[in-house]
Amino acid sequence: MSATQTILKEVKSYHWFVQFMIVLVLVGAAAAIYRFAFGLGATTNLSDTYPWGLWVAFDVVTAVPLAAGSFTLGAIVYCFNIKKLEPLIRPAIVTGFLGYSLVCVGLLVDLGQPHKGWHVLFFWNLHSPMFEVAMCVFAYTTVLFLEFLEPVGEKFGWKFSLKALRKIHMPLVIAAAAISTLHQSSLGTFFLIAVEKLHALWYNPLLPLLFWMSAISCGMCIIILEATACHKWMGQPNEGVLLRTLAKILPWTIGAYIIVRVLSLIFLTDNVLFDDPTTTKLFAAEMGGFLVAFFMFCTNAVRNNDSLRALAATILVFALILYRFNVSIFGMMDWNNIYYPSTIETLVTVGILAAHVLFFVLIARYFPIFVHGHEEEKTVTENSTEPAFSHN
Amino acid sequence: MMSNDSSKQNTFLIDLTKCTGCRGCMVACKQWNQLEAEDTHFFGGEGYQNPAAMSEHTFTLIKFRDSEKNGKHSFSFYKEMCMHCDDPACVSVCPVHAFHKTPEGPVIYDSKRCIGCRFCMVGCPFNIPTYEWSKGLPLVKKCDGCYSRIKEGLKPACVTACPTAMEYGPRDEMIQLAEERLKKYPDRYVNQIYGKDEAGGTSVLYLSSEPYEELGFQMVTDRRLPSYTWPALRLVPSIFVTVGAGLSALAWFNHRKDRIAEEKLDAVATENPAKSEEDKS
Fold it and tell me: Is A336's Cβ below 8 Å from some Cβ in B?
C-alpha cells in the first residue's frame, strides 16, 4: 500500500466532524493562495480607510488572548504550586502552541511582504508595539514548542531530550508567563497610537493593562471549555473537580478586570463616552458579558455544574472577543462607510480556526497529551484501539 | 508652546487663501514620482476634487470645499500631503524602522525594509500613508518631500510648480512669515497656523481663511504621537524582570514544603547508608 493510500485510509476512519474540519482547512488554504495571486485589494475589503480588518482583529488581536490558557495555568500550577491542576497542563500547552503557530500563519497572510517577516528580528525598533509583540510571539512560540516536545519525546522515547526538558522546565514556565505578560499587554499598546481614531469608550492609557487582565481570565475559560469538550466528545475523563478549582479563581481575575475597566472609564477618559447609540450598544454588550460571567462564576451552583460552568466560560470568551473587536474594528469604524470582511477574508479566518480544532484532535489522537496524572486510565488509553473522536 | 527644536528643517508653508486650485502641484508630483494616472469617476458627497482621495498613485491632492460666508457662496482649496511630522507616529510604530525622519525635514520610507504590516497607516493621525492594494505583495506609498531633489539643492516638485500659494524654507522662517501674514491681514485668515503645534509640530504649515475643521483637516492632538505609546513600552524591560523575578520567588517559596520533605527523606537515607546503597544499585 502506498503512503497516499495509507493516509487516505486513515482519514476515512476519522469522525465526520474531523473530516469536515479538514475540508474547511483546505478551503482556507485555497483562499490564502487566492489572496496572494490576486492581491489584497481584489480579495479583501481592506482599504486605505480600513488598513486593518478581520485578519488583524481576529487572527492576531483576539487569537493571542484565546491562547493565553497555557501561560496562566503554568503559573498557577508551578508558581502558585496548585499541583492538582497539573493534568490540565498538557492540553493547554497544545492549545497554546497551536494558537501561536496559527497567529503566525494569520500574520503571514495579512502582511504585504511576508517573505520579509524575518526583518523584525534584525531591524529592531524598541518604540514599536508591533516589534514588541512580534519578538514576544516568536520567543513564546519557541517556548511552547519546547514544552510541547515533552509529549512528543515521550511518544518516540527520546530519553535524553526528556531529561534536558525537565531541567529547563521551571525557567520555561516563568519565561512563558513573563513573555506573555509583555505581548498580551503590548497588543493593547497597539491602539494607544490611535489617539483621535479610537472611540473614548475604549481608548484610555490603561489599555495594555486591561488587555493583559482580560487575557488571563479568558485563558482560564478556554481551559474550562477545552476540558469540558474533551470529556464530552473525546472520551476523556471528567475533570470537573479541577475545573471547579479554576472557576473559584475566576471571580477574582474577572472582578479585578471589571474594577480597573470601570475606574479607567471614569477617571482616565477625556472625551464624551455615550455620544453614539451604536458604540454604546457594543460597549453594553461587551461589559454585560463580563458582568454576567463574573456573577455566574461567583455562584456555587454554577461552579459545581459542568454545563453551567461551561456556559459562563463561553459568555466570558465571547465578551473578550467582542472587547477585542470593539477596540480593533468597531471603535474606529466610520458608520457611514462600514467595513465588513470579504468572503476570502472570512474563509481564511474560518480555515485557521478549523485548523486549530483539527490539529488539536489529531495531536490528541497520536500523542500522549491526556495520560499525565491519570495513572489508572493510562493503561486503558494506551491499550484502547478506539481512537480519539471515533465513530460510536 | 515651543513645539519643536528642529527650526532649521525644510518646511512647506501653504497659504490656502492664495491657492487657485490649478493642481499644478498634483501634476508635478505625478511627473517627478512617475505615478500612474488614475481612472476616476464622478462621486457624490462633500468635495468635487478629482480623484476622490489620495492613493498609491496620488501622493498629493487638491481638495475642494464650498461653503457659505456672510450669506455668499464661497469655496476654498486644501492641499493634502504628508505632514512630515517632527516626531512622526509612522517612524515610531514601524516594527522594522522602515520610516525615518531626515535632518533635512522630510520623512522618508525604505521599501526594502517594509514588511507590509500597515501599522503606519493606523498610527498616522493625518491618514497619509497609502497601500498598493492592487498588488499581491504590496508596499506602502507616500510623499517623501522630494528628498532626492532636496539633497541636490532643489525645491520639492510641487513647490516648484506652484504659481501662488507655496513657500519653502527653514521652519523658523516659515513660521515667522506666516505670523507676519496673520498680523498684517487679520481679516483674511483664521488666527491659527495649522501644523505649528499639531502632532507636536510638522514640517508642513497651513494658513487658511476657513476654519480648518470645516475644510476637512484632521483635528489632531498637540502632543507628539509617540509619547502615547512610549510610557507603556518603556516599562517592558522592568515588567519582564519584575514578573520573572516575582514568579521565581513565588515558586521558590511555594515549593519550600516539597523541598523540606525531600531533605527529610535524604536525611533518613544518610542515617541508613545500607538502605541508600541498595537504592543506588
Answer: no
